[in-house]
Amino acid sequence: MTANNHNGKGRGTTDSVAQRVLGICKLTDADAQIKYVGRDENDRTVVRIASSVTSSVSALQKCLSASMPLARVGTSENTLDGSMEAKITVPTKLDEWVQANDITTDKRSMKTLRYVSVALLCVGMGMWLSSIVETVASADALEI
Fold it and tell me: Which of 27, 52, 79, 142 is found 20 to 30 A from 100 (Cα to Cα)?
């Protein structure tokens, strides 16, 4: 694994993500091996892991999906030897924030809370404007 000089991130970040992914896979398959670690065009870490003969790629997929629900998990074929590998694309912190925000804003309770907060904001603004008008009116009445 080499350092990516084009984006200012060293090999430490990629290595730590790869080791975390491998650790998760080792819970299901003790003999799982990393076959590829790199970054995609959006600076997300991509890891491909081969399962041992005693396990399956789908077991690794399920384990990775359960442990990293915001990551994209799939399979890829190694064209050199025809073997299947589990492939995980680990999102960046920004990706995670956007996905989590999208998930929560789709919930009915969050939409209701948003509407209630806008309604309360409008009521508060109305009360504030009403107090300003009342203050101006009472000041004009005192000047007469």
Answer: 27
